[in-house]
Structure prediction request, 215 residues.
Amino acid sequence: MDRIKKLCSYLDCCKSFADVGCDHGYCTLYMLKNNLCESAQISDISAKCLEKAENLLAPYMISGKVKSVCCSGLKDINKDTEQILIAGMGGEEIILILKAAFIPEKFVLQPMKNARLLREYLIENGADITVDEIFESGGKFYTVIKGKRCGKKTEYTLTELKYGKALQSEATKRFLKSELAKKERYLENPVNEAARKTITEEINTIKEVLSGDNR
Ligand SMILES: C[S@@+](CC[C@H](N)C(=O)[O-])C[C@H]1O[C@@H](n2cnc3c(N)ncnc32)[C@H](O)[C@@H]1O
Prediction:
């Protein structure tokens, strides 16, 4: 629940909101309870998952504030929806969803893995990334990428592509320290030369970031 609360703190007040891959529907409930949107669409590829959100949001569905749609990705989501959340899926799955449809006017994306691929896709397609940081919840680390379909082109260094824009935030530092420990432990085992070289380079990059020297 703490992850949901933190994730929702990245959402802005908007006219129309869509929660793609909504599952339980808690994020939409947050938007409505806090009067952060006038209307919302909830969607999920799984009818069973969507039913959970429909039950949670039943009063809002009855009043017409929330519409539900069972579909893959953005297929049946209005293209003019002001803000769209896609959270809790892999970065590659989120890319497939965007590729098959459109980059939302305003988006909050929370990939569970492959955040770098998602950043690269958004940058290549002209999105304006305004927030790209790590937050911590329940001992786990999550990347959140927030931005707009178009705006000023976002520039990234190689290190930012790997770990996000907030390289000096406390959460990123804790994440990098845990990654560093994992990689160092990994190298204590027999590893082939090529893999050892790659992991050693990654370790050096992380150490540079942690020392504040990441140009
Ligand atoms: C782990 S849950 C995340 C739920 C919620 N968004 C969150 O962040 O807590 C992932 C949800 O995404 C749905 N899902 C996976 N792929 C999808 C797709 N291509 N289109 C729509 N929903 C999808 C799953 O059915 C599942 O309900």
